[in-house]
Design goal:
single chain, alpha+beta, Ribosomal Protein L25, Chain P, RNA Polymerase Alpha Subunit, Chain A, domain 2, 2 domains, six-stranded mixed barrel, 4 helices
C-alpha cells in the first residue's frame, strides 16, 4: 500500500471557538497520538485531507504526517462529521509501525453479475459490507472482492470461503454468511390480508360443519 505524505501544522489552540475559526479558514483540527507520545493537537488542510482519504485505500490509507520536521506514519481514525453537512470536522491520527499488526475494517465488494440467480427471479442479499482483518499496514487490502458470477439460488458465500491475501487474517466466525442468493421474494400480491384469513377460516369451519351434519344424517338413516 502506498504512503501518502500529508503536511500538518502543530500548536493549534484548542477549544470550540478556535476549532470553528480553523474550519472557517479551510483547515480541520486533529490530534496525533500513539506509541507513547503525548497527544499532539494539529490542523490539516481540508482539501488535502479529503484527497488523502478518497484514494482506493479509503480510510485505511497510510498517511505520512510531516509535522515540525518530524515524520509520523499514521492511519486516520475517529473521524467526526457534521450532523447535517456530513463533512469532516475533526480527525484523530493514530501512529503505527510498519511491522505492527493492525485490526482494521476493509470494505467488501461484489464483482460480476449472478446471471443464474436473476434468471430465476432470485435476489443477491449482501449481509456483510466490511470485514475486520488483521495485517501489517503495508498489507492492508483496499477491499475484499467476491466474485458472484457463479452463484445460483440457494448458494451462500461465508467468511470461510474467502481467499484473503497473504499476510491478512480475520477472527470473524467462518460460518458468518456474507452473501446469500435468495429465492424469489414474496410479492405483495401473494400476501393474505386479515380478511382473507378470516374468510378461509370461516370456509373451513363451514366445510367441517357440513361434513358433521352429513355424517349424522347417515347414521340416522341406518338406524
Amino acid at each position: 500500500m502506498a504512503e501518502i505524505t500529508l503536511p500538518v501544522e502543530s500548536g493549534r489552540p484548542v477549544g470550540s471557538r478556535s476549532s470553528g475559526r480553523l474550519r472557517a479558514a479551510g483547515k480541520i483540527p486533529g490530534v496525533v497520538y500513539g506509541h507513547g507520545i503525548d497527544p499532539l493537537p494539529v490542523s490539516v488542510d481540508q482539501r488535502a485531507l479529503r484527497a488523502a482519504l478518497t484514494t482506493d485505500s479509503g480510510l485505511n490509507a497510510l498517511l505520512n504526517l510531516q509535522v515540525d520536521g518530524a515524520s509520523h506514519l499514521t492511519l486516520a481514525r475517529e473521524l467526526q462529521r457534521h450532523p447535517v453537512r456530513h463533512n469532516v470536522i475533526h480527525v484523530d491520527f493514530q501512529i503505527v509501525r510498519r511491522d505492527e499488526v493492525m485490526s482494521v475494517d476493509v470494505p467488501i465488494n461484489l464483482v460480476g453479475d449472478a446471471v443464474q440467480v436473476h434468471r430465476g427471479d432470485g435476489v443477491i442479499d449482501q449481509q456483510v459490507f466490511s470485514l475486520t482483518v488483521q495485517a501489517t499496514p503495508a498489507l492492508i487490502p483496499n477491499s475484499i472482492d467476491i466474485d458472484i458470477r457463479g452463484l445460483t439460488i440457494g448458494d451462500a458465500v461465508r467468511v470461510a470461503d474467502l481467499s484473503l491475501p497473504t499476510g491478512v487474517e480475520t477472527e470473524v466466525d467462518p460460518e458468518v454468511a456474507i452473501v446469500i442468493a435468495q429465492p424469489p421474494q414474496v410479492s405483495e400480491g401473494d400476501l393474505l390480508t386479515e380478511a382473507d384469513v378470516e374468510a378461509a377460516e370461516a370456509a373451513a369451519e363451514g366445510e367441517a360443519g357440513e361434513g358433521g351434519d352429513a355424517a349424522a344424517a347417515s347414521e340416522g338413516g341406518e338406524g
